[in-house]
UniProtKB/TrEMBL annotation:
A Pfam entry, by short name: adh_short
Stated family: Belongs to the short-chain dehydrogenases/reductases (SDR) family.
Protein name, per record: Putative oxidoreductase
Keyword Cell membrane: no
Enzyme class: oxidoreductase
Length: 243
């Protein structure tokens, strides 16, 4: 019962993290376009995965979450590491006028995460669950408040879930990276203290291997200082801050 489940098989961060954790164990990749995961699967096999299975995963279909996790456990003989790497950035300008798009962002980036985290916490007897918050949720900005609000809610949920799991064989690792330079943010100007998917994966993998109990990771660590400063910026100044 040592398989790795990656929810969001096309994720840059998820792929990097899976490559660091897959050696000597089976992997289950779950994604909306499960038939296009061949390259990811090949990379993980090359990194030492004993087997790679793929499953179709629609995050917004909440009713399918428990069945998907059960299927992953059946395929791989049990899951001891689950990584929630699915999500969308969305289009802030569109979301301000299109309530369906705003709800789509909220559903995938918050509601679906809450649903899947609840299923995993209920079905995994031990190991670790990895969830991804963001500096964007620390204080929502005018430029991306729809996305930022989902990360704020997810972060709060994760802190409570981590407390619930305290003292059990199952732990939750919540990563709070800064601006991640990857496919999701392609074409956007990097913010201060930006990180790459590889840097995020390195930090999470190190915590999995050496840490104990649930943890919240600022990536990079000095981002914690910037977050403290962000809370002190006056509201009139803050509302003009870029993404």
């Amino acid at each position: 019962m040592n398989a790795l489940l990656l929810l969001g098989g096309h994720s840059d961060i998820g792929g990097e993290l899976a490559a660091r954790l897959c050696s000597g164990r089976p992997v289950v990749l779950a994604a909306r376009r499960a038939d296009s995961l061949a390259d990811v699967a090949a990379r993980l096999r090359a990194a030492g995965a004993t087997a790679v299975h793929t499953l179709a995963f629609e995050a917004a279909d909440l009713a399918s979450h428990r069945e998907l996790v059960e299927r992953a456990q059946e395929l791989a003989g049990g899951v001891s590491t689950a990584v929630l790497a699915f999500g969308i950035l969305g289009d802030q300008a569109r979301a301000e006028k299109d309530e369906a798009h705003a709800a789509e962002i909220a559903t995938i980036d918050y509601t679906s995460q809450v649903s899947m985290l609840t299923v995993l916490a209920d079905t995994m007897p031990h190991g670790e669950i990895v969830a991804f918050s963001s500096i964007a949720g620390w204080r929502a900005r005018r430029a991306n408040y729809v996305y930022g609000s989902t990360k704020a809610g997810l972060d709060a949920f994760c802190q409570g879930l981590a407390d619930r799991l305290h003292g059990t064989p199952l732990r939750l690792i919540t990563a709070r990276p800064g601006f991640v330079i990857g496919s999701m943010t392609q074409g956007m100007k990097p913010a201060p203290m930006s990180v790459t998917p590889a840097q995020v994966a390195d930090a999470v993998a190190a915590e999995i291997r050496t840490g104990k109990g649930s943890a919240t990771l600022w990536i990079p660590r000095r981002l914690r200082l910037l977050a403290w400063v962000m809370k002190l910026v006056p509201r009139p100044v803050w509302r003009r801050m870029p993404r």
